[in-house]
Task: structure prediction
Amino acid sequence: MYEAELADVYDAIYAGRGKDYEAEAATVAELVRERLPGASSLLDVACGTGSHLRFFAGLFDHVEGLELSADMLAVARTRMPDVPAHEGDMRDFALGRTFDAVTCMFSSIAYMRDDRELAAAVATMAAHLNRGGVLVVEPWWFPGSFLPGYVAGDVVTVDGRTLSRVSRTVREGDASVMEVHYVVADAATPVRHFTVTHVNTLFTRERYEDAFAAAGLKVDYIEGGPSGRGLFAGTAG
Result:
């Protein structure tokens, strides 16, 4: 699957599944303002197609996004032409300004391959915080909560297209490997089948907390979160 096609199918699947980006954005905004009541600016790192960012835009006076995938970024820019959206890598970006809040949602942090990359990403995001600012990161599963061999499946119909998504996730060493199969069908084009593989590191809670501490942040872990994996909230001194 080409990245542009993946961005389109990805959005359609989650829209059909009813993922509530608006409620998730509101929860994160509340978390931020519990720690910094006057927070008015936010940077969403790994913003994807802007699904959270467009709701953050209604909750903060100024928002910006950062995304590694040019194709997903193109969708975000089309959705929100007035919101600055930057192409960059969470490990080493430099925007030349700071924010009251920085977020990294949907377990994107777990694409970091080891502790060195995790520390680099957290430090880079922390460097974009104002004094007292808050970094909110949604982790992937911890090793103890990961279920090897987990299988998930959905079939949705959105805008005249029927899409199915079936995944199986296994553990390989320190990482989970998720193989995802998509089938897309509509009246105008032949049925298409795509396969995508996601490799995510199974960092422990302690490894995340160590990365926050190394970046000079006081960190809390909040159980639950949007997907049951919790949230880390780190505050800059």
